[in-house]
Input
Amino acid sequence: MTKSRFSIALGLLLALCLSVSAQTIVGSHEVDPKVKEEVYKVLDEYMEAFNAKDLDKWEATWHFPHYRLASGYMSILEKAGLRSGVPVFDALQKTGWSYSRWDHRNVIQASDTKVHVDVRFSRYNKAGALLKTYESLYILTCENGRWGVKMRSSYAE
Output
């Protein structure tokens, strides 16, 4: 094979490899603006329901089974309505908590059915004083045409 033919063959092989590998990548750092808008809407509803201490509405922003990794423990809720909001919200209120707020929400990877969101939220008391801030990773999925929080990995207690 001549040097010229070898260069052409090598170039074609490289182009083929790049083409195949580009086609097999799923998930991207480029986010469809419509997906991002829908995901942020769910996160807004999530925080509003949480601050209202409305367990039913809060769980309505989730998909089940729902996973939470925090304090070194993975909790799994198989379906909505398996627990009372009293222990969830009473324990927080005993720390002085009154409400929470997103500090940032950054979509870091996305497809048309799954989104990874780097979030940071803070907890505040009734006077508006900051209690604590937590970094987390939320994974939202689109199931049956609806976006919901499928998994949370958090440094919150």
